[in-house]
Amino acid sequence: MSAQTDAKVTQGALLRASIFGELRFESADGEVISLNNRRANLLLAILCIEPGHAMDRDALARLLWANRFAPQAKASLRQCLLELKRKLDDYGLDGLVVSRARIAIDPAVLSCDLDDLEAAFSAGDNEAAIAHLLAIGNRPLIQGATLNPRFDKWLGERREHIDARLRSAIAEAIRTSPKPIGDRLLEAARTRFPTYRTFNGVDHQVSLAVLPFPQLDTVGGDFFLAEGIVDELSTRLAGIEGITLAGRTSIAVVSEKGRTLTEIASELNVSHLIEGEVRRGPKGIQVRLALISGQSGNEVWSDQLYGSIEDFFESRKVIGANVIAAICRALGLPTSPAPSRKMTHDREAYALFLQGRSMVQRISGEEAFDKAIEFFERALAIDPEFAECWTALANAHIMKAALTPSLTRLEQSAKGADCAKRALELDPGQGHALSILGIHDWALFNPARSLERAFEAYARDPNDADVSSRLGSCLLYLGKARDALPYVEASVERDPVYARNYAMLASAYLSLGEFEKARVAGKRMTDLGFPGMWLALAQFALGDCDAAVQTHYETRFLLGTVIMRPPGMPPMDDAARDAYFDIAARGIFSGRQADRSAYCQLIDALHATMPDPYDSSISFPAIWMGHSELVMKIYSKRIHPANIFGLMSLWIDIEPINHTIRHPGFIDFAEGIGMVEAWERFGWPDLMPADPRKA
User: Fold this and answer.
1) Cα 401 from Cα 616, distance rounded (Å)
2) Cys bridge to 475: 260, 412, 480, 684, which one at CB 3.0-4.6 A?
3) Which Pfam families does this UniProt record tie to the protein (predicted)?
4) Edge-to-edge, what's the strand order for the sheet holding 24-26?
């Protein structure tokens, strides 16, 4: 029995509940409390999931008696409560808190396996947390409870909520623990989550980049074999414990610069590179592979592989288990089986998939995304069971909605979600698809569900730079910068020349009050060609208003390229552009109230007249100027992939940005868009450690 449980016992009679696996209720002295009424058992278990949380009586009646009319369901609930109270009274337990509208169980008289586990994590008692994790193992919450479709759906969602909370707590405990304790936590976590991985819990972490392979072809024809082999090699290595793989976006950018191997390794921040080439002739294919030390540029290991086209497309023999095992041995890593991959066997579908993904990686405008979508859809017309292509198509729709001047962003987001659902139906291991669904959850005002999906996506696919990036960004949107920082840093580490990652890193540092680190991240972002707004925010936070105004003003040259024009708006000539950016730069960063008021009036007018009144060209400056009424008006009406990025700036605690979170109506606004539900499940923001309404 834990110290927390001992303390409760001294206060009075205690109900001990085990809600993982088969339900079991005991008195403080270990006597089993038998409840013959099945629904009474389930009712007590439901209350034990969140002790102290009062649940609506009508909602409980509908949940447990879904097939009865409302008056009958309410009467059944009353009878059930009488039986439950009578049984608890027999053991001297007076824990039910019942009113005409709500029902709860008093946490002071309850010891529950879930509550004990989460309390151990909250208290930093890792030994107790390990013991509790091992005790519950892989048993599901309320095992075997099938009642009716409504209850079954509710229970499935609660299981996902709680497992997501546990993954979050485990990740934080591992991150903040000494390595020996972290290793034990990781081992205990895997009793419940066998595929659980973390970038902090590995003995020997190797950072690796698989460079593009040239293809020397004597047969002719447009054939994407080299890209396919690099794709297969990257995917299989990404599933190996102990390897962190650089992101494809950064690799594509750096490999085009004509650098030496050691320079490439340095820019990608990796310890090793894999290079090679593919030769295709009438008799088959030949692949040369080499593992290169990033520090010296010397070859550590190499091999020559031979096979037929059929070996690659039909059975994936070219990059087989022996190749992966040999690379692991050369890196000093224990050999572990690479995860299976559900891939198309059709050559044309695969070639179209690779072409589409190449177009997405360029991030070069609406036409590139449209062409990528066309390639993916053609591939899926050939092979509709191609799960990875469904994920790629989902990502293309989301990226188009986020990064192009579209007036159909919600529709694009919904299309992305539909494609992601299809990918997961075909292959539940598609972590990236799950993270895309999480983006659309924000558009549905369900950030709690988004964060659940983000944690689950990371558990399934922790080596995907996009997955860790989207988990970090979701936490930032919710004001949880401390929790977000490790995932954001991991994203930067894996994709070090993807400028958008530095915007997240700067936002995290700004939210944590580390303004100089934010300035460095912002400067790196501008060096990579991204607009300087986040650098300007850092300069403003450091008190250098003149530099912030100038930095923001210089971003005008990126309008129409990196900075998309507001959808449906005509192009500006240079004079109009310069005048607008001058007003904007001074309004946000000069520190003068007259400038701020003028720009607030201007974006109010734009909000009233633009085809997309929720566009980031309005929502972002509204946040940065602390124009709280407009911020809450915009985001309470519409959140889409283009304006959601601004939410991470909401939590910078400097004047005037903090006006929004300090507004008297902010909590009501946050509740309306689903943030409060997410905080109640996953913890409150850094700047708001508890519900202010209960203070």
Assistant:
1) 12
2) 480
3) TPR_8
4) 24-26, 15-18, 110-112
Looking at residue 7, its pLDDT comes to 42
Cα–Cα dist 533/526, whole Å: 9
CA torsion, ordered 458, 337, 494, 301, to nearest 10 deg: 180
Rounded Cα gap, residues 554 and 424, in angstroms: 43
Beta bridge partners of 96: 105
Quote the pTM value: 0.74
Strand partners, 395: none
Q: Strands 24-26 and 15-18, how do they pair?
A: antiparallel
Structure tokens, 476 = 């930032």
Let me know: does 116 contact 2? Beta carbons within 8 Å.
yes
The single-letter code of the amino acid at 394 is A
Task: Tell me the range of 2-16, 165-179, 492-506 where mean pLDDT is highest.
Answer: 492-506
Structural domain 206-330, CATH architecture: 3-Layer(aba) Sandwich (3.40)
Note the CATH number of domain 3-192. 1.10.10.10
Q: How far is 454 from 434, CA to CA, in rounded Å?
A: 7
- Give the Cα separation of 58 and 77 in Å (integer): 9
> Where are the domains positioned within the chain?
3-192, 206-330, 531-694
| Residues 6+ away with beta carbon under 8 Å from 417 | 394, 436, 437, 440
Instruction: Give the contacts of 635 (CB within 8 A, at least 6 positions apart).
Output: 619, 643, 647, 669, 673
Phi and psi torsions of 522, nearest 5° = -65, -40
Q: Are 396 and 356 in contact (CB under 8 A)?
A: yes
Distance of CA 639 to the CA centre of its chain: 17
Q: What is the pLDDT of residues 500-532, one digit of tens each?
A: 899 999 999 999 999 999 999 999 999 988 899
261-268 vs 248-255: helix crossing angle, rounded to 10: 140
The C-alpha angle 157, 158, 162, rounded to 5 degrees, equals: 120
CA torsion angle for 358, 364, 369, 375 (degrees, to 10)?
-30
Alpha-carbon distance of 130 to 170, in angstroms, equals 10
Rounded Cα–Cα distance for residues 168 and 196 (Å): 11
Kindly state the tokens that stand for 214.
Answer: 């040239």
Q: What is the DSSP string of 326-390?
A: HHHHHTT----PPPP------HHHHHHHHHHHHHHHH---HHHHHHHHHHHHHHHHH-TT-HHHH
